[in-house]
Amino acid sequence: MLKGKNILLRALEPSDVDLLYQWENTSELWHLSNTITPFSRFVLEQYIMDSHQDIFTSKQLRLMIDKKNHGILITIGTIDLFDFDPVNKRAGIGVMIVREEQRQGYAAEALQMLINYCFNTLNLHQVYCNIIADNLASMNLFKKAGFEVAGIKKEWILASNKWMDEYTLQLINIAD
After folding, report:
1. End-to-end alpha-carbon separation of the chain, Å?
2. What is the pTM of this model?
3. Strand locations in the chain (E)
4. Neighbouring residues of 31: CB distance < 8 A, sequence distance ≥ 6
5. CB-count exposure of residue 58 (10 Å: 0-12, 13-18, 19+)
6. How do residues 46-59 score in pLDDT, each as one tens digit?
7. What is the model's pLDDT at position 59?
8. Is-contact 163 133, C-beta < 8 A?
9. Whether 32 contacts 78, CB under 8 Å
10. DSSP designation for 33
11. Coil, helix or strand at residue 141
C-alpha cells in the first residue's frame, strides 16, 4: 500500500469487482483503453484473482485509489502501469478518477505517488502515457507532473465515428 496525504494506492481486492464491473463496462470510456466489448463479471473476478502476480510476470499493475474521508476509505478510481518493460526500464501509465471526484487533486497525487514508485522502487528510466487530443484535463495533468509531448499519432483513435489524434507523453527519470 502506498500512502499519500489525501489518498492511498492499494492492491485489488475481491470486493472491488462491482466497481470494476461498472467502470470497465461504461462504453463512453472504452476509447480511452482501446476496449470495444463489455467485460463479464467472471473475467473481472479472474483478473482480480490473478492480480497477485508479480509485475515482472504480468507486465502490468493496477492499483485502486482510495480517498480518506473522516477515517473511512472510499474508492474513487484506479491507476495502472501497463506495458512494463524491465529490460528497457519503462512502463505506461493510465489513471481514471470517477467524475464526481475529478478536479480535486486526487489524480495528481496518485500520479506523483506512482511516478515515485516507478523511479525509486522499480528503478525505471521512463514512464509514458497516451492521451487523446481532446482530453485537455489529462494533458494538463500529465504536463504538470513533468511529462513532455514526445509525439502525435494522427487519426489514431476512431471514437463516435470521428478520427482523433493521440499524443504520447513521456517523463524521463533525470536521476537515472
Report:
1. 24
2. 0.84
3. 2-3, 7-10, 61-69, 72-85, 90-97, 126-132, 148-159, 162-172
4. 132, 157, 158, 159, 164
5. middle
6. 666 666 566 777 78
7. 83
8. no
9. no
10. T
11. helix
